[in-house]
Design a protein that fits this description.
heterodimer, A: mainly alpha, globular, B: alpha+beta, two-stranded antiparallel sheet, 12 helices
Amino acid sequence: VIADEALMLACRDGSVEAFEQLFGRYRMPVWGYFRRRLSDAARAEDLAQETFVAVLKGAVRYEPRALFRTYLFTIAFNLLSAERRRLRARPAMSLDDAALVDLAADPHQGLWVRQAVGRLEEMDREVVMLREFEELSYAQIATLLNLPLNTVRSRLFRARTELRRLLIPETHTQGHGS
Amino acid sequence: MTMTNEHPDREAVMAWIDGELPVDERAMVQTHMDTCVACRQMADELRGTAKELAAWRVDAPPASLADRVHAAARQPASPVVPAPRASSALPASPAWQRPLVWVAALVMLGLLTTVRIQCAPGGPVCARPRVHFSFMETPVAVPALVTSTAPARRVLRADALSPAARERFESEWNTRPHVGINRSGQTAPVVVVMFLDWQCPACRAVHGAYGPIFEAWERSNPGAVTVVLKDYPLNSSCNSNVSVAMHAGACAAAVAVRLARERGTAEPLIAWLFANQETLTPESVKAGAETIAGITDFDARYADTIALVARDTADGGALHVQFTPTIYINGVRSNGDDGRALAPYELDLAIQIELRKAGVIK
C-alpha cells in the first residue's frame, strides 16, 4: 500500500491517478466530516468537493511536513470554519435559522447520539468528534485545533464522560479510590 | 502521568485505551490494569461510550461527489494520464504542463460548476396526489411542495428507524409536557398545529418534507390526522411577539395565502412564495398574489385579514413560540429546545404513537 504522503507527492508531480487513489481513501471520511457537522447535505457535498479541489490546488506546493491526514482535515476544518462564519453572519440568522431541520439525515440509530453530542460544549464536541469519527490522534487534533496536547486529552476525557452520562444515564461510573 | 492511590489517573486510562501513552507509561498502566478491577471497569465504560457513538453513521456520499471531483481532476485535456510515480525525485514537468495546474486555474475561473438533479414537473417523484386537510375553518390543500426547483427526496417513514430507536423515541416523546391547544373545533384523533412564516426557509423545508407523511396517513387512515396551520410571521408590523421586521414580506404573504385560499389558488401561491422567499417584499407579494392567485382586492381586504393573522400570532405568543416552524402534535411541542424540528420519520412515528394512544391503530 502506497503511503498517503507518497501519493500526495506523486499528485504534486502531476499524477491524476494518485489523486484519485487519495480521493478513494478519503471520500467517505471527508464527506462524513461535513455531513455530521452540517444539517444541509447539499452544502456538505459542496464543501467535501471544495476540500478535494483544494488538495488539488495545493498539490503544487505540498511538502510532507505533516501527515497527509492532518493536512487534509486542516483544509476541511478551515472550510467548515468559513462556512460557520458565513452562517453566523447571515442577517436572517435568528429565530428561523435556529430551526433548520436535518431532514436528510440517516435515521438509522444515531438520533440520540447526535442529540447528546450536540449538547457538549463546542470545543469538547469538536475534539471528541475528531477522535471518534475522523480517528485523528491526540497530536493531530492538537495541531488542527491549535490546542496544547494536554488540553486535547482533558477535553476528550470530559466530553466522553459527559456523553456517557447523557447516553447511559442509568449507569454510574464507579469512582477511584482505595 | 500522575497516580492516585496507586491508580493511574482516569485520563491516563483513556489515553491507554486510545494507544496514546508513551511506551514506558503504557507498560505501567498495563500492569496496573491486569490487577485492578475498578480501572478495568472504567476502561470498559469508556469503550462503551465509543461504541454508542458508532451508532451515528452517515449515508454513503452521493455519487455526484465523485463525479464532481473526478471531473475536476480530469478536466484538463490530458489524453496521456501520467502513471503514479514511485518517487518524487523524478524531474517535475514545467508547471504549465501539469494537469493539476490547469484544474486549479479552471477552479479559480469558476468553470467547474455544480450540477444538481432537479425534480422535473410531472415526473414520477413530483406527481404526488393532492390531499385535503383542514386549515383553520376552511378545508384547504396542504400540498407537498412541488416546484421545479425542489430536489427529489426519498421519503423515509418511521419504519426506517430500528426497533430500539423507535422505543427510545416513544419513551422520550411520552415524557414531553402537553400544552392546552385549542383544537379549533377539530375532532380528528391527531391534530398537528404548525406555526409558520411563509418567508422562513425552515418552514419551506418542513412544508415540503412533511407533506408526504401527512398524505400517507390520509391514504391509510382518512380523517385521522388534521393539520392546522397558524400564521406566525416574523415581522413586528403584524406580530407583536417579535421585535424586528425580520421577514419583510411575511405579513403580506400571510394575508395573500388566506385570500388565495378563498379562491382555491393557495397552492400555486405558496409554491411561488417559497420559490421567492429571499426577495419577498409587501409590494412583490401583492403583485404575486394578483398574478399567481388572481387576488385583485388585496389592499381592500388587508386590514380584516391581518386581524385574523393577529389571532394566530396571539396564540403563538401565549405558547411562547420562539421558532418558526413550531409544531405541536396533540399539544406536545415537537421541536427540540434548540428549535430543531422533527425529521419526517420522527414526525411519522409521533403520529403513530398518538394514533395508538387514541386507539385508532394498534
